[in-house]
Structures are given as structure tokens and as C-alpha cells.
Amino acid sequence: MGTATASAGPALSVARKLIAPLALAQFICSFAGSNMNVMINDISKDLNTTVKGVQTAITLFLLIMAILMIPCSKLTDRWGRKRCFTLGLMLYGIGAVLSAVAPNLGVLILGNSVFEGVGTALLIPPVYILATLWFSEFTSRAWAFGVISGLGGIGAAAGPLIGGVITTGISWRAAFIFQALVVGTIVLLSRRIVDPLPADPARPFDTVGAVLSGVGMFCVVFGILQAGSNNALMTVFLFVGAVFLAAFFFYIRSRERAGKEPLLSTGLFRNRTCNLALVTQNMQWLVLMGTSFVVSVFLQEVRGYNAIKTGLIFTAATMGILASSLAAERLAKKFAQKSLIVWGFVVTLAGIGLLLGFVHASSNVVAFVPGLLLIGLGLGGMLTPSVNIVQSSFSEALQGEISGLSRSVSNLGSSFGTAIAGTILVSVVATGNRAYVWAMVVVALSGLIGLGAAILLPSRLEQS
Asked: Are 321 and 382 in contact (CB under 8 A)?
């Protein structure tokens, strides 16, 4: 993947026009991760399941994305970026239609968690690889990632609102039809996309590495989901997950020493700047999805709000993300990427503090607006810099690997947000405000970890 080869990509003006299908793809995948939060009551009643059952479907969708993101990013080199993007859209569309007609929780998990999860894992790595190849200059790349990450954040924040409106006005099933329609639109818009690099069918694929990493991550997150209901099973799965992840690390290291291409190069973890930026990415999505799930469940289960009322409250977060993410290019010219991430976490933590403070002070729905607005502003302002730092830390030859690792880390953050904070809330939801407070405290602690990593980021970009 040399620079000369990549220079055959579209001109900057053309590339800016082609960004629409990529950004819409990130939007609908993020939307899918949060829109079900406001459908919990409706889905539970219609499919005769529980809040825990719906939480499992949401978490499995996010988890399958995380598990397959790295293997699928490697397939972009073997199959081609546009082909993976199109195949992912097709699988996602099938999953959306299947979910819309699901007669029970099992079919919903098959459509939403499996088909949409696999489809997302195939289509998201090409989004960031193509954007990196098309936009070589730092501020123009910041603009591209600002549009893509911004729409991703908006999709996650607006998911409850759009899902609430559709669920209340029509049915929760119509929300999946909406997803299928958006996917169809993306397919039409992406016809003009030309892969700037040729596919390499002879590129080796590390199947053993994919299995070891996938089983390890699945066991860890599945173990977290058992907290409060079966602690013995939780311990077993966490232990097995740790064993598989350790085996994965030693396996890829031995494969590298033997001169073979591993699923993931250990050299990616020798870049300190990238490592810290990956931590910030993980915590950003943990905070976003954790807040979305906790607030949505609390408002429906404890305060008794319906889907549309719950969704409307998240308009504040959506507006905050929209305002700050669309300013990404201007902000990148005026401020250092590190500063944007640090202040993003500070503003986000202030928003979480307001959500915690006002839950006791007022029962009015408006009490949630200031906190969600600050969280939206903070997250929208730092999503782009984190992605930009990670992707720009490596040469074009490593864009396939780092894109998959970056998206996997982000989706693991989303999974952890729904699994950890959600499990705390669901396991003691009958206690009302206290369960909400404990869950949001966990989210706040995650934000503090992200802030610590951001402060440690070096001022100058380090490229491998």
C-alpha cells in the first residue's frame, strides 16, 4: 500500500462529494446500537421477553461488531474495500428486514445482533480506510473524520429520538424498516465509489488468530452480562476470555517471529500516541452508549415515560454532538488535537455530574437536558481528534489493520457501556434512583480514565 499507488484516488473536491455514503453508513450503524433503548418496553411486551433480554440483543450486536472488526479489516485488503462495503450493506439490510418481522427474541437476535452485526463489521473498516486514503492533509482529514464520526455520534444520540418517534407513531418494527431504507439509499449513493487500491486475493488470512481473539472478547463481555444474575458463570467466562486473549497475543507474536503475517501486528501497540488515543476512543463510546442505555431504561422503567418522551430528551445530546462535530475542521486548525480531547472529557464529565445531581433535585424531564447537552458537546468535540490521531499515527501500508483495531476498540467501548452500566441498572432497577446513580457513577469513572489517557497524550504526533 504505497503512497504512489494511493495517489490514484479521487481529487479532493470529488472525495468531499463521495463522503456522503461513508458518513451515512456510520450513522445507521451507530443508530442501530442505540435506537432499541427506547423500544425496550414495546419489544418486551410484543415478544414476551424482559429488559434483560433486549439488553442482551443490543449488547450482542455491539459485541459481534467488535469481535469481527479486526478480521474484516484484514479482508478489505484481500477482497477490496468497496466490495466489503457493499457486502456489508447487503447483510445489514437482510438483518434489518428479518428483525422487522421477528416473531420472538431469538429471531430478533439473529437479524439485529448477527446479520446487522456482521454486516457492520464488514462495511465500517472501508469507511475509515477510504477516508484516510482520499484525504492526505491533516485538516482535510479532520474534516472527513468530523463528518463521519459526527454522523456516527449523531446516529447514537438521535437513535432514541428517531426510534421513539417511529415506535410511538407506527411500531418498533417500522424502525428496522427505516434502517433498511437508509441502507438502500447508501447502496445507490456508493455506486460512484472507486477503490483507490487494487484487491490482493493472495493476501494471507490468519484464521486461528481470528478465532482466538473473537472467542476471548465474546467471553469477556458475555461474562459481564452475567453480573448480578449468575456470578459463578460470570467468573468462568471472564477467566476463559482472559485465557483466550492471552493465547491470541502469544500466538500472533510467535507467528510474527516465524515471518508469517498475523491477524494483528504487535507493532501497532508500540506506538504510545496511538495506544493512548485508542483508550480515549474506547472510553468515549463507553460513556455515550452507557449513558444512552442507562438514561433510557431509567426513564421508561422508573419514571414511566413512553418511547417518544424518552427519545425527545436525547435531542439535547444530539444537538450538542451535531454542533461540535461539524466544527471539527475549524477546531483542528485552531487547537491541538490533544487539547480538544482533554476538554472534551472535561465537558462530558461536567454533563454526567449534572445528570447525577438533578436526578434527586427534580422529577421534571427538563432536568436531564443540561447534562445531556454538555455530554453531546464534549463527545462531539473529541470523537474526531481521537480517530484522526489513531489513523494518522501509521502509514498507508497499515491502514487496514489500524482501522480494524480502532473500530474494534470503539465498539468494545459501546459493548462495555451497555453491558457494565446496563447490567448494574437492570439488576437492581426496582430500587429506582439509587440504581441509576450507581450506573452513572460507573460511566463517570470511565470518563475519568479517558481524561487521564488524554492528558498523557504527547503534543506531537508520532507515526510508525
From this structure: no
